[in-house]
Amino acid sequence: MGDTLRLVADLAAERTPFVLATVVWRRGPSSGREGAKAVVLADGSLHGWLGGACAEPTVIKEALRALLDGRPRLLQLGAPQEFGNRQGESVVSVPMACESEGAMEVYLEPELPSPQLVVIGRSPAATTLVKMGEALGWRSTLVDDGAKDHDHGDLESVRRILNLSELDVGERDFVVVATQGHYDEKSLEAALATSAGYVGLVTSRKRAASIVEFLRGSGVSDEALARVHAPAGLDLGSLPNQQIAVAVLAEMVALQATGGLTTGVTVAQPEEAIDPVCEMVVNVETARWTFDHDGTTYYFCAPGCRKAFENDPASFVG
Fold this sequence. Notes:
The chain has helices at 2-13, 56-69, 124-135, 155-161, 164-167, 184-192, 205-217, 222-225, 241-257, 303-311; strands at 18-27, 37-41, 46-48, 73-77, 91-94, 103-111, 116-120, 139-143, 174-177, 198-201, 228-229, 272-274, 281-283, 289-293, 296-300. With 318 residues, it is of the alpha/beta class.
C-alpha cells in the first residue's frame, strides 16, 4: 500500500488526473482484501492490486467513467442479494458470476486537478474574485498590463501580453474579463481563443451586447460568441463593485456543480468483450484466455470460464 500512496502523492503534485480505487468490503473467497488500494490512470493502466482478473477490467471501465464525469461511485461486484439495500445514484452494481463465488465493493474516487481561474482587468471586482477563487483551492491568476499595447496588437500578441498562451487554459477552467471598459473587446477575443469552459464578461447588459456585435463584425464566429456569459454572474440586483465578484463566483460554482463543465480529461477507450459464460467485462487487448468457435473469437475472464465454454459452446452462444 505504501507504493500506491506514494504514487498518489506524486500524481497529485504533478497535477495528473487519476482514480483511487479502494476495496471497502468483501466476502470470501474473493481474492480482494478490505483496504486494498490501486490507482487507475486515464490511459486505462492500473497500478496496485485489488483482486483477481475477473474484477479488474470492470474496475478500470468504471474508473475511466469517473474521470470523465468527475463523480465518485461505489462499485458492487457480485450477486445483487449480497449488498442488501446499499443502493443509490452513486452505486454501480455488476453481477459477478465467476468461479471464485466471492463478492466485493470498491470505492472509486476520481482526483482531478483543481480548476484554473484567470481574471483579466484591474478593479475591486477582479481582485476580490481572485481572492475568493484562491479560497476555494482554485489556481487563480490576475492579469493586467494597463492596456498599453492592446489596441494595436493582433489576437496572438494580445494573448501573449495577457499570458493566456502560457497559462494553458483548459475545458474545466474559467476566464473572466473585468477590465471595466478599458480593453474589453481584445481581452474577450483572446479569452474566446482558449478552450475555457466558462468565459464571463463583467459589464452592463447594454455594453455586453455592443461588445458582442463588435466582435461579430470583426470576424468572431457566432459559435464562439455563444460561449460568453454576459453580464457575468447571477442576477443579484445592483451591487457594489466588490460584491459583483460574489455573483460571478456563484454562477461559476453553479455551472460546475450541475455538470455544465467537462472534466477536460481524455481517457482511453479499450476494446471490450463480454465473457459469454459469466458475462463479465474482458479487455480484448490484455485477455489471456480466448477460444475460437465457428469463426468467432470469444474472450474469457478466467480459465474456468474458458473451459466451460470449450466443453459446451452451444450452451452459451446466442
